Every structure is written in structure tokens, then in C-alpha cells.
Amino acid sequence: MNAALHNPPASSHGNPGYADICLEVRGLRKSYGSQEVVAGIDLTLRRGECFGLLGPNGAGKTTTLRLCLGLTDPDGGSITMLGHPVPLAAREARVRIGVVPQTDNLDPDFTARENLLVYGRYFGLSVARMRERIPALLEFAGLSNRADDNIKSLSGGMKRRLTLARALINDPDLIFLDEPTTGLDPQARHLIWERLRQLVGQGKTILLTTHFMDEAERLCHRLAIMDHGRMIVDGSPRELVATHIEPQVVEVYGDGAEAWASERGTQLSERCEQTGETVFCYAHDVEPLLQELEQQPQLRYLHRPANLEDVFLRLTGRDLRD
Ligand code: ADP
Fold first, then answer.
1. CATH superfamily of 3-236
2. Burial bucket for residue 99 (CB in 10 Å: 0-12, 13-18, 19+)
3. pLDDT digits (tens, 9 = 90+) for 243-292
4. How far is Cα 24 from Cα 77, in angstroms, rounded to an integer?
5. CA spacing 20 to 30 A to 256: which of 69, 107, 168, 284?
6. pTM
């Protein structure tokens, strides 16, 4: 990767504690009308960590990000970002922050390079500094050969990479990403993940929201599952799976799966849950269950280890949230 993209962290920010803790949130609260959208959240992000905020729609993830960025005023609690109190000194903190919003808000009238230039000016970067930095950012985004193309001609994945590159224009220490890969195909997602890993490898700190459990499992050192404005659990993906769910899952499909589950499935597993036509059986030892299913040719099944999605669904329920 191009060395010009990443400057070694400055040692003289003058904010005690900044070196280690990038973001400290205590008792954060926000209501809209009578609805408490963020209901007393605590969060600590250490330097070089990738932290994931997961939760169903309406859980309060985006509001939490907006509060941390100083874009929404809290009703209570405290936020310290890169040593600065937010919202009081949000402007100072944002100098060292990168933001990738949920939807790309690139300027459609400009080229890829011009979009980076305009954003750099917003941060007050000198022309010389931008000349040095923009080629490296375009290379990071895999867009060196599209630098002078209009945004309208770029694919969804390219736009997302450009938005990420744009968020890096000020060489931020802490990067916020709101659903970084929603709407992308698998190839484009993998490329974004690779880039995010590079950034973490350089010591950047990342706070991301996502609906993709595999994304969280792959990228995040730690994550929290939020619902109804509260953090229900937090820990490493592995810890959460080990603590909150039986280790084995057998998914059963086919005619009569429900009737089979209510009679045999519940006897042979610790817990059965049904969604539509599928029954999920959770157990420590699935051998008896698998032997039984061998005798049921009308049923199809899939045996797999439990994962973060199982934890998520157990803790937040299987009901649709719109
Ligand atoms: P998530 O990002 O987890 O989907 P949000 O933080 O966007 O959740 O929203 C949480 C809740 O707060 C939702 O019910 C949403 O409708 C409500 N909400 C968010 N922003 C506003 C606002 N500006 N005014 C009123 N309600 C809002």
C-alpha cells in the first residue's frame, strides 16, 4: 500500500488519554418525543480496535453514531472523542475523524478526483498536501484509472470505495462507518473488508454498524448488540457465540417439519425455534437428532456450528422490524 496514505500517529495532540482510548461514552441518552431511542449507553473504544454495533432496524445505532459525531445533541450522559468533549468540542474532534455514511453522498457533478479535492478543502488541506494525498487515496480505492471519470459512471462498489477513501482525506484516527457494505455484491464487499483490515493494521480505530453478521464476525474485535436503545451484550464475536447459544444447530426443512419438531425435535435438542418453513434445533450434542433425521426421508436438514446470527436472533427475537 502507498505509504503516503498513512502518516504515523502524531504524538502531541495534547489530549491526555487520547493515545489509548479513542471514544468514551457514559450513560448516553436521547429521546424523540416520548420514545427513548438511546437509553443509557456505555461504550469504550481503544486505539486500533474495530468495534461493531449491531441491532435490528430502529435499535438506535445511527442515532448513537450521530450523537458521537456531535450531529445530534444528547439528553444526558457524556461523550469524549479523541480527548474532546462532544458535543461541546465536536468540531475539534471531527478534525481527526472519518465518516462513511449509510448512503453515498458523493457529488454527482464531479469526477472521483474532484470529489476528494472538494472534501479536502473542507478540512482545510493545502493544495500541496492534497496533491500528495489524493493519488494514494485513489490507489487505495482501486480507482487510479478512474480518477477523472464522472461519479455517475462508477459502479456501486466503486462509489463505496471512493466514499471510504474520501473519509480518509484528513488521515483520521477514528473512522465511523454506517453499514459500509449494504447493497454491494460479494466481490465488492470482500474488497471493502480488505481495505478496512488494512486500516486497522495501520492502527486506525473503527466503529461500524452492520446488519451482516458475517461482516461483524470477520472484521470486529468486539461488538455490541443493541435493541430498543440499550446494549444487550458486548464482547468478541467468539465470546458471544460461546456464551449465548448452544454450539450446534440443525436446520430442518420440508413437509411436516413443524409437527416433527413439536414431537421429536424438542425431545432431542435443547431448544427448537421456527421461522416460516424452517425449524432451528439448538443442542450441545446433535448426534441423536441427526440419527433421528436419517429416519425421516421427507425432511431435509443442514447441520452447522452456531454463529453470531443465531445469537443475534436469540437475543433480539425473530419478529420482523420495519
Ligand atoms: P437504527 O440505526 O438502529 O436503525 P435509528 O437510530 O436510525 O436506528 O432510529 C432509532 C429510532 O429513532 C427509530 O424509531 C427512528 O424512527 C427514531 N428516530 C431517529 N431519528 C429521529 C428523528 N430525527 N426524529 C424522530 N425520530 C427519530
1. P-loop containing nucleotide triphosphate hydrolases (3.40.50.300)
2. middle
3. 999 999 999 998 899 999 999 989 999 999 988 889 999 999 999 999 99
4. 11
5. 284
6. 0.90
Mean pLDDT of 118-132: 92
Q: Please give the Cα distance from 57 to 103 (Å, whole number).
A: 16
pLDDT at residue number 14: 41
pLDDT recorded at residue 319? 78
- 246-305: what fold? Alpha-Beta Plaits (3.30.70)
CA of 192 to the centre of ligand 1 (A): 26
**Residue whose CA lies nearest to ligand 1 atom number 12:** 37
**Strand-pair category, 21-32 with 205-209:** unpaired
For ligand 1, whether the C-beta of 58 sits within 6 Å is: yes
289 grid coordinates:
437428532
Domains 3-236 and 246-305 in one fold:
no
pLDDT on residue 8: 43
| Ligand 1 pocket test target in 29, 35, 37 with most atoms within 8 Å of CB | 37
Query: Can you tell me which atom of ligand 1 is nearest the CA of 229?
Result: 10
